[in-house]
């Protein structure tokens, strides 16, 4: 079979668009430079505003003072960061394994789904701040209570997205698998799980952000009683002591942590989907 | 999945290419499959097929032609074993005898290419073999043979999104051919393609068929396509889906662009068109 339609030496350029994995260098530099320049501009404006107006540091500390707080308080802040990150990641990991496994079990059996899904929804719709005090009472330690809170919040997006993904398998492909006599496990592993991957990754991105938020919220709920040493605790503590520069420093650390989690989950998503999924493929016209 | 099956013969081995058998002509050949008064009623009461009886000879190229909704896909799916008939029987003549046998290896090509977007062309074509437990390295020859047949040997590592519509359809055909089927079922495979790609694929399909003499049941709603390709056209009408006309196209093979412009082709198209018009009038429209 010979065709002129195909030129083997070069990938076709057609309606689907050629794979564009590299952007022009200039554009890449610009993409990195613009946000950095914007940030620098904001910081400078902030510094000028505070200095020019003599704003007291317990109301709004200048960026320089916040940087100072980082320098003097970094042992405390770093330990606190470690605690919060550990709880967040642990909760995310358990949510990931649990959410995916439960989604797979529910996809295999309608009855399990009917029995369990309502509880997953109830856990999700009840605000975590409202449940946190109860969990603090029942959990053996404050740390485990925080972990449970973060887990509850991170669990649902992974479960619901993965469940939906497992259900949205292309019917034609299901027919094809049936035609070739695929058994249930082959269908699950070769078809349903790969087609659920984009959904799962969306769930993971959401869960990553939420796990951090929930860890912080739970720490707030635990308050000083928890004698916790996470970032949220340090934040509260700084507020009581009117150590506003340190409060800002803790806040910056939390934001940066959130951003890093977001970037890592986005990167994972991109790496796994870049070859095939529309969301990871650059459009080219 | 235990002992690796013996390597099948290469398609390029001369002995696999049969001489045009004496019974190769439509009607005179020994049947491969018979539908005996097959009816299909869907749970919503739609009578998709009513008493369809059809013998398909070995090595024949048969088209099912009819307006949309006349049960062409339903008939094809029943032959493929996707969904059972409500009544009637499907008889397979394994050994060229009238004895009922078992369903042979079937290749199915859907209207959509139905490829797994996360898998390369190679892995997509591997799928039918993989589902029957054949590891990758023992399938390589067959996969490359099948890709060769459709002219895509150089695209084994491409992802479906990197291919044009026509090329995706070729992958789908390669996947149907990789199991060396006796029977190729095609459900409006080229309906979504532009005319130029469709003509090219028509020609390539005919070349392959002339070379390997599988039995082909080809569903289409295009008079021109069915006349160009087939030895025999089964015209169907809707509500209820049934066979209303069974026509032979006696033009010799190979058929090519010259055939498309020949008076013989025009005459046949006119004849089949008239039958189709009658069939559409016969459906309560
Ligand atoms: N799963 C289904 N449930 C109910 N009705 C169906 C189903 N599949 C097809 N039909 C109906 O059966 C008839 C024949 O369908 P089909 O075989 O797909 O026709 P064709 O392929 O000739 O267009 C149509 O009226 C269609 O609406
Ligand atoms: Mg159809």
Which structural traits does this protein have?
heterodimer, A: 285 residues, mainly alpha, MetI-like fold, 2 domains, 9 helices, flat, disordered N terminus, B: 285 residues, alpha/beta, Rossmann fold, six-stranded mixed β-sheet, three-stranded antiparallel β-sheet, 9 strands, globular, binds adenosine-5'-diphosphate, binds magnesium ion
Terminal Cα separation of chain A, in Å? 32 Å
**Segments of chain A where pLDDT lies below 50 for 5+ residues?**
1-20
Rg of chain A over CA atoms, rounded to whole Å, is 24 Å
Oligomer description: heterodimer
Structural class of chain B: alpha/beta
* Number of strand elements of chain B: 9
**In one word, what is the shape of chain A?**
flat
Note the run of SSEs of chain B as H and E.
EEEHEEHHHEHEHEEHH
Strand content of chain B: 15-25%
Number of structurally distinct domains of chain A: 2
How much helix is in the residues of chain B?
A: 25-40%
The total strand number of chain A stands at: 0
Quick check: average pLDDT of chain A?
86
Order of helices and strands of chain A: HHHHHHHHH
Your description of this structure?
The complex is a heterodimer of chains A (about 280) and B (about 280). Chain A has two domains: about 20-55; about 65-285, Orthogonal Bundle (MetI-like fold). Helices cover about 75% and strands about 0% of the residues of chain A. Chain A contains nine helices and no strands. Mean pLDDT of chain A is about 85; it is low at about 1-20. Chain B has about 280 residues and is α/β, with parallel strands linked by helices. Chain B has one domain: Rossmann fold (3-Layer(aba) Sandwich), CATH 3.40.50. Chain B is about 35% helix and about 20% strand. In chain B, strands 5-6-7-3-8-9 form a six-stranded mixed β-sheet, with helices on both faces. A three-stranded antiparallel β-sheet of chain B has the order 2-1-4, covered by helices on one side. In chain B, α2 (about 120-130) packs parallel to α4 (about 165-175) and α6 packs across α8. The radius of gyration of chain B is 19 Å and the shape is globular. The model of chain B is unreliable at about 1-30 (pLDDT under 50). The interface of A and B includes residues 15, 172 and 277 of A.
């Amino acid at each position: 079979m010979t065709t002129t339609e195909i030129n083997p030496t070069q990938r076709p350029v057609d309606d689907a668009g050629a794979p564009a994995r590299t952007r022009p260098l200039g554009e890449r530099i610009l993409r990195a430079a613009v946000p950095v320049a914007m940030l620098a501009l904001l910081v400078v404006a902030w510094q000028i505003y505070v200095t020019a107006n003599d704003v007291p540091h317990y109301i709004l500390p200048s960026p320089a003072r916040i940087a100072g707080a980082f320098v003097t308080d970094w042992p405390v802040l770093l330990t606190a960061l470690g605690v919060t990150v550990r709880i967040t990641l642990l909760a995310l990991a358990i949510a990931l394994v649990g959410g995916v496994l439960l989604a797979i079990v529910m996809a295999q059996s309608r009855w399990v789904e009917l029995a369990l899904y309502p509880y997953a929804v109830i856990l999700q719709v009840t605000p975590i701040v409202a449940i946190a005090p109860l969990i603090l009472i029942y959990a053996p330690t404050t740390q485990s209570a925080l972990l449970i809170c973060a887990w509850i919040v991170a669990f649902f997006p992974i479960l619901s997205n993965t469940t939906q993904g497992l259900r949205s398998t292309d019917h034609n492909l299901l027919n094809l698998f049936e035609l070739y006599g695929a058994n249930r496990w082959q269908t699950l592993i070769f078809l349903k799980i790969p087609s659920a991957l984009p959904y799962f990754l969306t769930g993971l991105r959401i869960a990553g952000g939420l796990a951090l938020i929930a860890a912080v919220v739970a720490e707030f709920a635990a308050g000083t009683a928890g004698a916790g040493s996470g970032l949220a605790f340090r934040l509260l503590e700084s507020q009581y002591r009117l150590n506003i520069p340190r409060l800002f420093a803790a806040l910056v650390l939390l934001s940066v942590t959130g951003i890093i989690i977001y970037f890592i989950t986005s990167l994972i998503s991109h790496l796994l989907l870049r070859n095939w999924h529309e969301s990871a493929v650059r459009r080219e016209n | 999945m235990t002992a690796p099956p013996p390597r099948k013969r290469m398609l390029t081995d001369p002995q696999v290419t049969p001489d045009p058998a004496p019974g190769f002509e439509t009607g005179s050949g020994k049947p491969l499959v018979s539908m005996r008064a097959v009816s299909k009623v869907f749970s919503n009461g739609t009578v998709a097929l009513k008493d369809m009886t059809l013998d398909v000879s070995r090595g024949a190229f048969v088209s099912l032609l009819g307006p949309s909704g006349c049960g062409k896909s339903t008939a094809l799916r029943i032959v493929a074993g996707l969904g059972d008939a409500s009544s009637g029987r499907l008889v397979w003549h394994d050994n060229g005898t009238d004895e009922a046998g078992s369903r042979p290896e079937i290749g199915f090509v859907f209207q959509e290419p139905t490829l797994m977007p996360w898998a390369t062309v190679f892995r997509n074509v591997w799928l039918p073999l993989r589902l029957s437990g054949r590891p990758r390295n023992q399938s390589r020859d067959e996969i490359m043979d099948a890709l060769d047949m459709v002219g895509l040997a150089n695209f084994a590592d491409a992802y479906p999104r990197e291919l044009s519509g026509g090329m995706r359809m070729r992958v789908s055909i390669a996947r149907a051919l990789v199991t060396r089927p006796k029977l190729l079922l095609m459900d409006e495979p080229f309906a979504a393609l532009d005319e130029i790609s469709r003509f090219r694929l028509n020609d390539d399909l005919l070349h392959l068929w002339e070379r390997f003499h599988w039995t082909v049941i080809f569903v289409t709603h295009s008079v021109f396509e069915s006349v160009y390709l087939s030895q025999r056209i089964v015209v169907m009408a809707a509500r209820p889906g049934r066979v209303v006309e069974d026509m032979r196209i006696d033009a010799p093979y190979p058929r090519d662009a010259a055939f498309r412009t020949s008076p013989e082709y025009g005459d046949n198209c006119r004849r089949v068109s008239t039958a189709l018009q009658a069939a559409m009038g016969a459906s309560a429209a």
